[in-house]
Amino acid sequence: MTLSDSGTINASLGNSASSRDIASVLHPYTNFTAHEKTGPLVITGGNGIYVSDESGKNYIEGMSGLWCASLGFSEKRLIAAATKQLETLPFYHNFSSRSTNPTIDLATKLLEMAPVPMSKVFFANSGSEATDSAIKMVWYYHNAIGRPEKKKIISRKRGYHGVTVASASLTGLPGNHKLFDLPIDRILHTETPHFWREAQPYESEEDFATRMAEALEDLIQAEGPETIGAFIAEPIMGAGGVVVPPRTYFDKIQEVLARYDILFIADEVICGFGRTGRLFASETFRLKPDMITVAKQLSSAYQPISALFINEKIYAALKKGADEVGVFGHGFTYSGHPVAAAVALETLKIYEEDSIVDHVREVMGHFQKRLRDLNKFDKIGETRGYGLIGAFELVADKCAKTPFAPTGWAGKAVAELCLTEGVILRAMGDSIALCPPLIITDKQIDDMFDKIEIALTKWHQSI
User: Distance between the two ends of the chain, CA-based, in angstroms?
Assistant: First the structure.
């Protein structure tokens, strides 16, 4: 498939969905040259953990779309909740003390569910917007309490926190920075806590965690503790390769943050609402954040919505600043959109009434066993995961942990073979991520991994 010089579809290509896509859609996270040659995979339907393309082929959606469709692709209660709210009040805003019942009910419910005491919930439309809001509130907070120099925010290399200008600056991946003039000022990055890849020979997990905490403290000391306002981290790194923290890592990191009075932002956009077998991964890893961002599984992705939890000390500072200025000058047209809020509220009800978190605990052991079993393949260096999230990393040499060169070709090849076998996964360099809907059964887990093993066998035979 090619385009004419004018950018329109060549007449010989007809008017297929693929041709019209190439001509008109600018895709995120896509190589445009390759896309013009191959065209898109056009998904036209969904049922449970499965989606289907325009040819009728079914796939296990092993990534829940983008880490988000926790209840699968055909939950009728969510469709009904959206329809009912559209018929009642399709839109209203939260500006200037306006509100709606779904927004109020959702905020109340989220505060009841929060893993640590929180004061207020601010709504946005995506994880990126929630992160941006957290950044602005960190700066606002320190200005309001008379510490205007305490503004730098520390993230981690390979961390992922979004793609807006500020959130992409926190994201510690080169592809999100190159040619975008990012990161912006006042954003710093500390080390990635990937034990398998980054540990020294004979270093224990606990010793590695100590070294990571010392690296964070060294960065704080080098920059000046009086200039560091906050630290942000995903409990389990997602797009950076599904990196599970080593034992004692967050205990030691939080000790450092407390020592220098640095706010802690937990990015629960991927992990929140059951992914680790607890309602929040902050519970799984004993985190005590001052702010929490959530999105994705908040509405099972049936509506775009995100939320930022803030604790009382932050709210008190925002209130003080808003009194001085006359208004808290931040928000979005669709903050707390009543349809999105109604769907999110129904999603939370389903989690409770259908005991979704209990179900995750019942199947996660089998999921992790089947993931570990992939270590039998010669070119898989590591399998890693927790709950219903995982990854396997492809290497040229298993013993030496030697990566493939160039980076990424192996991951792409394996992901494409998995697609051929009927499983949608995501290649992140040469790590392949799995994040299936939370409703997946043991039988479906076996079906998914059986297909992955067929794809891996074919790939090993071809190289």
Answer: 28
CB contact set of 103 (below 8 Å; sequence gap of 6+): 94, 123, 336, 338, 341
For range 270-287, the mean pLDDT: 98
What does the pLDDT read at residue 13? 52
**Residue 2 scores a pLDDT above 50:** no
User: Is the pLDDT at 372 greater than 60, yes or no?
Assistant: yes
Q: If you average pLDDT over residues 374-396, what whole number do you get? A: 98
- Name the residue with tokens 């880490």: 67
Instruction: Provide the mean pLDDT of the chain.
Output: 96
Distance CA 436, CA 277 (A): 13
Q: Cα(279)–Cα(112) distance, rounded to whole angstroms?
A: 12
Cα distances (angstroms) measured from residue 37 to each of 55, 56, 57, 344, 406: 19, 22, 21, 38, 21
Residue 104 above 70 pLDDT?
yes
Q: What is the pLDDT of residues 40-68, one digit of tens each?
A: 999 999 999 999 999 999 999 999 999 99
Of 26, 14, 291, the residue nearest 137 (C-alpha) = 291
pLDDT tier at 11, thresholds 50, 70, 90: very low
Supply the pTM of this predicted model.
0.95
SS3 labels along the chain: CCECCCCCECHHHCCCHHHHHHHHCCCCCCCHHHHHHHCCCCEEEEECCEEEECCCCEEEECCHHHHCCCCCCCCHHHHHHHHHHHHHCCCCCCHHHCCCHHHHHHHHHHHHHCCCCCCEEEEECCHHHHHHHHHHHHHHHHHHCCCCCCCEEEEECCCCCCCCHHHHHHCCCHHHCCCCCCCCCCEEEECCCCHHHHCCCCCCHHHHHHHHHHHHHHHHHHHCHHHEEEEEECCCECCCCCECCCCCHHHHHHHHHHHCCCEEEEECCCCCCCCCCCCCHHHHCCCCCCEEEECHHHCCCCCCCEEEEECHHHHHHHHHHHHHHCCCCCCCCCCCCHHHHHHHHHHHHHHHHCCHHHHHHHHHHHHHHHHHHHHHCCCEEEEEEECCEEEEEECCECCCCECCCCCCHHHHHHHHHHHHHCEECEEECCEEEECCCCCCCHHHHHHHHHHHHHHHHHHHHHC
Say if CB 329 and CB 137 are below 8 A apart: no
Show Cβ contacts of residue 45 under 8 Å, excluding neighbours closer than 6 positions.
51, 52, 73
Neighbouring CB atoms inside 10 A of 315's CB total 16
Rounded (10°) angle between helices 442-462 and 409-421: 130
- Of 284, 452, 266, 249, the closest CA to residue 361 belongs to 284
